Structure prediction request, 253 residues.
Amino acid sequence: MKRLAGKVSVITGSGLGMGKAMALLFAEEGSAVVVADINQQAVEQVVSEITAKGQRAIGVVANVAIQEDIDKMISAAIKEFGSLDVLVNNAGIIDDFKTVGELEDELWDRIIAVNLAGPFKASRAAIRIMEKQKSGGVIVNNASVGGLFGARGGAAYVTSKHGLIGLTRNIAATYGLYGNIRANVIAPGGVETSIQNTIKAPSELGMKALNDTGFAPLGKPEQLAYVALFLASDESSFINGEVITADGGWTAR
Prediction:
């Protein structure tokens, strides 16, 4: 039996990279998927790949920094598929490794809006549906090893990922312990995705701090997708409020 048979999943940032790999894998494992991303062309491509195999998917162009877009993607799941069983908060952006002294308000606000406020608002919308369902639901947040240490990103990025881990644990300690909604975090290390291409003018000091952490193995998006699948499935039914580090051993040294 497929591991997500009959489930409905919303995956943010699923037009490319890890999110796309998750969307394709979740669909293969039986879930109907709402492909949500800011890039319309990428959304259409992923939906096309899924439906071409006879699997279920719809696309929603959404910026997780905008409340109306969050409402739109959550509503689309209910309208099209009738429920919402899994929310994967995968969308995220980086900050050129800017340190506190270099960081301008505009970049700080943008990073926090996408990486932390977005998952909060999406989780809030999802929880309001999941808590009314007998089957409850699952939230998987894609953070980073930057949420565990200080030098795996710039000040805004690291702060946002630490905050995302705290948010996840709060959900687990309330809706998980006293309800039927589980929440867990993936903390990836280096992954071969297009997000690397968004590094335009990296901070010299921020990069020095990163480089001093040693060589980071690069994983593939598909490897992270299988971690998300495990956390979304009933195979992880007794795992709640945990951080699963997936970094090829980078932080084990």
The first strand starts at residue 8 and ends at 12. Helices lie at 17-28, 40-51, 67-81, 105-130, 155-176, 204-211, 221-232. The mean pLDDT is 94. The CA atoms of residues 144 and 187 lie 4 Å apart.
